Amino acid sequence: MSGSGSRLIGVGVGPGDPELVTVKGVNALRRADVVVVPVMDTGERGRAEATVLHYVPEDRVVRVVFALNERTDRARREAAWDAAGERVAELLRERGTVAFATIGDPNVYSTFTYLAQTIEGLVPGVAVETVPGITAMQDLAARSGAVLTEGTEPLTLVPVTAGAAVLKDALAGPGTVVAYKFGRLAHEVAAALRETGRTEDAVWGSALGLPEESIRGAGELGDGPLPYLSTLIAPARREGGRGGKL
User: Fold this and answer.
1) CA–CA dist 7, 98 (Å, integer)
2) C-alpha triplet 93, 99, 102: angle, nearest 5°
């Protein structure tokens, strides 16, 4: 099959709770000729795969290794990316429509962005589409009761892989701040919250919607590391009662 008839669909499958996949997402997964799920080179089943298997039989799911946990050896990471891209390109040529399942949303800090760029170079004429998914910040807001935005408040999303200094700058500004991927820097995150006076209303969560779910006030952020995919919401400072920011 030539690339001109191929479709690559990035499907956001949410943060882990299988009920948080949209109807459109489930339909895209079921209609695809094959569903690719990214796995780490260590081989354990990831959240995207576990969610997909609620909706798609295992024999239509293909595991493709991405060096998702490789941050130091760039050559090794690039080699893994190239191999993953070649494997997905091969599936597109053979099968036609490939859905790629990604946790959260495919356009928010997702592996899918890089995969799509690689595939467009390997399979000329491929059609690339995305199906949006529920993000971890939305799920944490729902489960904790934290309101993300009101009225004219801005919302700032920071991946703490960029360093705690970026988070501290955001916390010093207005509006709500959300931090992703801060598990390994939990101590620095707790310090940034204290130094900016934002600890009191802030909440963090991990493994949302899964049996090991943990949701706590940010005052309980200890010195030890948390799960890598932890999420923090530091709500805007709000005075003035209902509609104060309108």
Assistant:
1) 6
2) 135
